[in-house]
Amino acid sequence: MSSLLTNLRRDRTITDWDPEDREAWDNGNADIAKRNLVWSVICEHVGFSIWSLFSVMALFMGPEYGISLDQKFVIAATATFVGSCLRIPYTQATARFGGRNWAIFSAIVLVIPTGLTLMLMMNPGDFGYGWFLAVAAITGFGGGNFASSMTNINAFYPQRLKGWALGLNAGGGNIGVPAVQLIGLLVIWLASDNPEIVCAFYLVLLAIAGVGAAMYMDNLDHQTSSAKAMIDCLRYRDTWIIGILYVGTFGSFIGFGFAFSQVLNISFTSSGAAKPALAAAQIAWIGPLLGSLARPYGGKLADKIGGGKVTMYTFVGMTAAAAILVAAGTMSDNNGKVIETGHLVGLIVGFILLFLLSGIANGSVYKIIPTIWEEKAQARTDLSAMAKVTWSRSMSGALIGLAGALGGLGGVGINLVLRASYKSNQSATVAFWIFMAFYVVAAVITWVFYVRRQTVLSTETTDIVVEPTGTEPAVAEKSSATTIDDAAATNDAEPHTVPTTAGNGTLA
C-alpha cells in the first residue's frame, strides 16, 4: 500500500533525460525506461484490441443483425481508416501533453466505443448499419495509440537499444490483435450467444491500463514533435519510400488481422463446416500472434545485419506466401468456387506466413529510419550540435505518425480489395494476385534504395534536391560505399556511424 501511495505522490515529469549517458543508464535510468516500456506496451496492447474489436464481433453477427458480408468488410475498413488517420495527431500528443498523461487519456477514451459495441451486440436488429459504422470509426482511436506510444518510448531508449525496445513495444501492442480474437474464441466456445462478454472484459482491462499508466509512467520534458516537422518530412524522398514499405508490412499485418477471420469464415462455410464461425475463430488468432511475436526479433535482426537487407528478404518471402494463396484460390475457382481441404490448408499456411513475415519486416523497416535522420542532421551546417539532436528527434517523431498512418491505410486497402474481389468474383483470388504484385514491387524498391544503393552516411542521401529555406539545407543525390546497413552492422565502431550523442529521439 505504501508503495502505491509513493507512486501516486512522486513527481511525474523527468527533466534532462539523456539515454546516451551510459553511467546514468546503468545507475537507474534503465529501470525507469523499462517501467515506462512495460506500461506503454500494456496500454498499446489494449488499444490494438479495441481497434480490432469488430474483427471478432463479425463472427457473432448472424442474420439477425441485418449486416451483410459486404458491409462487414466496410466496417473493418472504417475502423482501420480512422485509426490510421489518428496516428498523425497522436504523434504530436506526447510532446504536447506528456507520454504518461496521454496514455491515461487514451485508455479512458476507449471506454466509449467499447461500451457502445457492447450495446450494439446485446440488441441484434435494433441498430442499423450506420450505427455499426459509427462505432467502428470510434474504435479507431485505439489505432492511434501506436504512434503516441512509439514516439514516447523512442525518447526513453538509447540508439544502441532502439531496434529492440521499439520492436518490443510495437510487438507487444500488436499482440492485442490475436488476444482479442482468442478471447472471442473462448466466448464463442463457451457462450456463443453472448458477444458482450468480450466487451465487458476489455472495459476491465482499460481500467487497469489507465490506473497503471497513472501510477507508473512518466512525462519527459524534452519530447519534441511538431506539425511543421511533419510538413518538412514530406519533402524527403525517404519519407515516401518508408511509407510504401510500411504499407506492405504493417498494412498487411493489420489488414489481414481484420480480414483473416472473415476469409476463414467464408471458406469454412463453403467447405461445409458445421460451425464455420467457431472453426474460423480457432485459427484466426494464430497468424496475428506469430506476427506480433516476430516483430521485436525483426528489429533485433536488423540491428545486426541491417534493416534494408532484412526488409528485402521478408518481402521476397511474402511474395512466395502470396503465391501460395494465389494457387489455393485458383484451384478453388477451378473447382466451382467450392473450397476443399487442400485449398483450406493452402489458405491457412499462406496467411500465417504473411503474418509472420510482415511482423519481421515491421521491426526491420523501423531500423532503417534512425540513420536517415541522423545523417541528415549531421549534414546540416546551419545547426548547433544540440539543435541537430532536436531536429533529428522531431523529424523522427513526425515520421512515426506519417509512416504509421500510411501503413494503416494499407490495411484499409486490403479490406477494400478483398471486398471487391468477393463481390465481383465470389472469391479472393484476384485480391491475392494484387497482394503478390505489391510485394514484388516493395522488394524491388527496398533493393534499389536500401540494399543495392542504400542511404549513405556522411553527406549523401537518396533525396530529391531541395532549395535551402533557412531551416533546411540543400541535399543532393549521391552514392557511397558506406551505407545504412553497414552502420547497423558496425554500430558505433566506425567514424561515420550514427553518433550516440544524437540518438535520444530517433526512431529505430
Automatic annotation (TrEMBL):
CDD domains assigned to the protein according to its UniProt record, in alphabetical order: MFS_NRT2_like
Chain residue ranges for the region called Disordered: 488-508
Principal location listed in the UniProt entry: membrane
Domain of life: Bacteria
A cellular component annotation (GO) from this entry: membrane
Membrane topology qualifier: Multi-pass membrane protein
TM spans (from-to): 37-61, 73-90, 102-122, 128-147, 168-191, 197-217, 238-259, 279-298, 310-332, 344-366, 398-418, 430-450
Signal peptide: none
Cell compartments where the protein resides: Membrane
One MF annotation (Gene Ontology) recorded for this entry: nitrate transmembrane transporter activity
Record-linked InterPro entries: MFS (IPR011701), MFS_trans_sf (IPR036259), NO3_transporter (IPR044772)
Keywords linked to the UniProt accession: Membrane, Transmembrane, Transmembrane helix
Comp. bias intervals (Polar residues): 498-508
Family as reported in the entry's similarity comment: Belongs to the major facilitator superfamily. Nitrate/nitrite porter (TC 2.A.1.8) family.
Database matches in PANTHER family: HIGH-AFFINITY NITRATE TRANSPORTER 2.3
Protein name as it appears in the record: Nitrite/nitrate transporter
Organism: Gordonia amarae NBRC 15530
